[in-house]
Amino acid sequence: MNVKKVVLAYSGGLDTSVILRWLKEEYGCEVIAFCADLGQGEDLQAIKQKAFKTGASEVVIGDLKEEFVKHYVFPMLRANAVYEGSYLLGTSIARPLIAKGQIDIAVRERADAVAHGATGKGNDQVRFELTYYALKPGIKVIAPWRIWDLNSRSSLIEYARKHGIPVPVTKAKPYSTDRNLFHISYEGGILEDPWKEPPPDMFVWCRPVEKAPNRAEYIEIDYRRGDPVALNRRKLSPANLLDRLNDLGAKHGIGRVDIVENRYVGMKSRGVYETPGGTLLHAAHRALESITMDREVMRLRDSLVPRYAEMIYYGYWFSPEREMLQKAIDASQANVTGRVRLKLYKGNVIVVGRKSDTSLYDPDVATFEADQVYRQSDADGFIRLNALRLRLQRLRKAKR
Fold first, then answer.
1. What is the three-class DSSP state of 394?
2. Which among 87, 72, 83 has a CA at the least distance from the CA of 38?
3. pLDDT of residue 154
4. 12: exposed, middle or buried (C-beta count within 10 Å: 0-12, 13-18, 19+)?
5. What is the C-alpha separation between 122 and 118, in angstroms, rounded?
6. Which range, of 139-153, 218-232, 249-263, 270-284, averages the lowest pLDDT?
7. What pLDDT score was predicted for residue 189?
8. 148 Cβ partners below 8 Å, 6+ apart?
9. Active centre residues (catalytic)
10. What distance in Å separates the CA atoms of residue 326 and residue 331, rounded to the nearest whole number?
11. What is the C-alpha separation between 286 and 336, in angstroms, rounded?
12. Do residues 142 and 120 touch, judged by C-beta distance below 8 A?
């Protein structure tokens, strides 16, 4: 492959640090390191200097926190997307934005290739590359893990040491992490045995429930058309709101998940996740929908959620089917405006209140007390009509 300039998705970690040096040696090309700031809380200037020292010709740091939350996380939350019942898709939703940033730079700098550090076994390779091809069909893609002879974390560590590249991973602590403003993930290494409990010192965000406060805390979240806009009556930008909710959820030990999931390539993989703010928003959103969404609209939307979540997990964010489905989901959110009150306590998020000016909940109809709105005698014909097919089936069996 003839490559003169490549844009690398660079994190400063073991894989991408080695890849940066390897690209220069393998192709003799210019490497632009792109570091997307998605709220991972790292010293990006230090990462920038590390990239230059490792051989990057240019380093671009993109502050994408607000775009990430507003245009990627919030649309996903409007759909209540959960993969296989547990995973809130924190890594999955970040990859399309990182890949889009690479393509934007590749177009601007007239690069002829993009590269990533995803392995040939995982989902991220698909997420990156589907986005590359969707946005720039003719781009060349370099996936080192699928073509080089460095086939393990240990071999990468040795390569880094040989070339004087400092890395944050050691053989004694080999699991891999990914962090952004929505979540932290842990996988590989000591987590590959699904029977073993994760070591307590692995977690860096959510408190263990044993050390969470002994007193519950109440919070209120305001929504407008399905998106959170304020916390405790204070309006905040999308990224700032999520950041504050992360602190609150983590403080009370909310948001840890340990699952074995089905990767797109076909294998099962264990993932441990911390998603404190996202867990709060997911619970609050569903609570508000319960009083503002029409029953049949909700059921139809809910029937599409597994497919929508699968699209994100598999990397089809920029697909026509996801965009079409997003329009339908967003239309269902027209009346999802109001306020939700949550109780946070010892790893639990408990909905204790919800109200809305667009509420479909009518106490005059729902009451168990005497009312002048609902004629209970109407239920007789309603039940008999719905029981007709059941009665006919039983009568037919009796004739036999």
1. helix
2. 72
3. 83
4. buried
5. 7
6. 139-153
7. 87
8. 22, 26
9. 15, 95, 124, 176
10. 8
11. 10
12. no
The domains located in the chain, with CATH, are: 5-72+83-174 (3.40.50.620), 179-355 (3.90.1260.10), 371-399 (no CATH)
CB burial of 65-82 (b: ≥16 within 10 Å; e: otherwise) equals bebbbeebbbbbbbbbbb
Q: Residue 302 and residue 299: Cα distance in Å, rounded?
A: 5
Residue 364 CB partners (closer than 8 Å, separation 6+)? 371, 373
* Tokens read off for 165: 């590249």
- Which positions ≥6 away from 42 have C-beta within 8 Å? 12, 179
The values of phi and psi at residue 322, to 5°, are -65, -40
Confidence of residue 373 (pLDDT cuts 50, 70, 90): confident
User: How does pLDDT run across 34-60, given as a tens digit for each residue?
Assistant: 999 999 999 999 999 999 999 999 999
20 token code pair: 């940066």
For the chain, percent helix, then strand, then coil, each to nearest 5? Answer: 45, 20, 35
Phi (first) and psi of residue 260, to 5 degrees: -115, 115
CA distances from 20 to 25, 174, 221, 222 (A): 9, 21, 43, 44
CA distance 78 to 10: 30
Average pLDDT, the chain: 95
